Amino acid sequence: MKKEVFGTVEGREVHLYTLENSHGMKAVISDFGALIVRLYAPDHDGKAEDVALGYDALDPYLVNGCFFGAVIAPNANRIGGARFTLDGETYVLDSDDGPNNLHSHKDLGAHKRIWDAEERDGGLSLTLSMKDGELGFGGNRTFCVFYEVTEDNGLRITYDADSDRRTVINMTNHCYFNLNGQGQGDIMGHRLQLMADSYTPADAGSIPTGEIAPVEGTPMDFRTPCRIGDRIDADFDQLKMAGGYDHNWVCNGCDGTVRKIASLENESGSRIMEVYTDLPGVQFYAGNFLKPETGKEGKTYDFRSGLALETQFYPDTPNKPQFPSSVFGPERHYHSVTEYRFV
Predict the structure, then answer these.
(1) Would the annotation count 152 as a binding residue?
(2) pLDDT for 230-248, tens place per residue?
(3) Was 175 annotated as part of a binding site?
(4) How far apart are CA 88 and CA 102, in angstroms?
(5) Which of 4, 13, 25, 324 qualifies as a FRET site for 249, CA 20 to 30 Å off?
(6) 3-state secondary structure 122-140
(7) Sign (positive or negative) of CA dihedral 106, 72, 104, 183
(8) Sheet holding 48-50: strands in order across?
(9) Is 174 annotated as belonging to a binding site?
(10) Is 118 one of the catalytic residues?
(11) Which pTM was predicted?
């Protein structure tokens, strides 16, 4: 595994670690934010392109308003009203998305911390601790993310976390993909399949209403592969409120095992990515709020130039007892696996 200096934050060195397999697939991970900085994925002819949006230098990641490549912890996605009650205690979080909380904290979340890195078992282990009450969440917590590049061209991410108190834990990675290569136009022509019969409708603030609605007969139906651009601007309230796709789908077959929940293909069909997870949901975000900025290799990122498939517990789960529980603690260890596999 190659290790190199990426820069410094408050006098502390930040590094890049390169993981690769024998087929030309390569992932470059930073111990700052546990970021996916680069992801070189082969196409059907074996040609590898960097398919992950991001930056060449460390400094832009200190801002990273779009969360490019970032691990999100303790809680991914939104919590309505930036508060929840657990075991009779109300926890107040940072209101960083209007009145709501998004991704725990925009400035102090796990994506803005330096993680402790260790090379082991052919992969990279990254560990981060947070104290009881930090960011508004309870429990002294330890988070671990393990990255490995498999011989079948998968980037496998294993998440583990422990807490000495019952607390909310919902980790994900916010990588933006463009299967033509980062900076190579928009993703409107990509074909997406989601193995999901239903989704969680949301209000104008992107907070789920609590309903689990069928995708049948709506533009939210991706059970068979569909071009993202075909219906993204349809006259459908859910899409109009969110500016396009930015919703949680309820993945079929959630039984604790890792199974395929999505497939993504570029326009030419030359590169296909499958998504596997043991989690109950996936947030498909089509980059509706990306604005022109300079990314890697001087490429310009713009509106819908990348998409995220964030495996997760559903948004606002702490306030929705009917949703699968994201409460973990001494009696329930947090463990999940997500893999992005190129076939």
Answers:
(1) no
(2) 999 999 999 999 999 999 9
(3) yes
(4) 23
(5) 25
(6) CEEEEEEEECCCHHHCCCC
(7) positive
(8) 2-9, 12-20, 26-30, 36-42, 48-50
(9) yes
(10) no
(11) 0.98
* Cα separation values, 71 from 104, 153, 170, 312, Å: 11, 21, 11, 12
Residues 260-299: tens digit of each pLDDT: 999 999 999 999 999 999 999 999 999 999 999 999 999 9
Confidence of residue 74 (pLDDT cuts 50, 70, 90): very high
Phi and psi angles of residue 199, each rounded to the nearest 5 degrees, phi first: -145, 175
Residue 107 has a CB neighbour count (10 Å cut-off) of 10
CB 277 within 8 A of CB 338: yes
Task: Please state, rounded to an integer, the average pLDDT across all residues of the chain.
Answer: 98
Structure tokens that stand for 300 in this block: 């310009």
SS3 12: strand
Indicate the SS3 state at residue 63.
coil
| From 174, 247, 265, 274, the catalytic residue | 174
pLDDT digits (tens, 9 = 90+) for 24-73: 999 999 999 999 999 999 999 999 999 999 999 999 999 999 999 999 99
User: Coil, strand, or helix at residue 115?
Assistant: coil
Contact 85, 138 (CB under 8 A): no
Do 223 and 243 touch, CB atoms closer than 8 A?
no
Terminal Cα distance for the chain, rounded? 24
Annotated ligand binding at 246? The verdict is yes
Active site residue 190: no
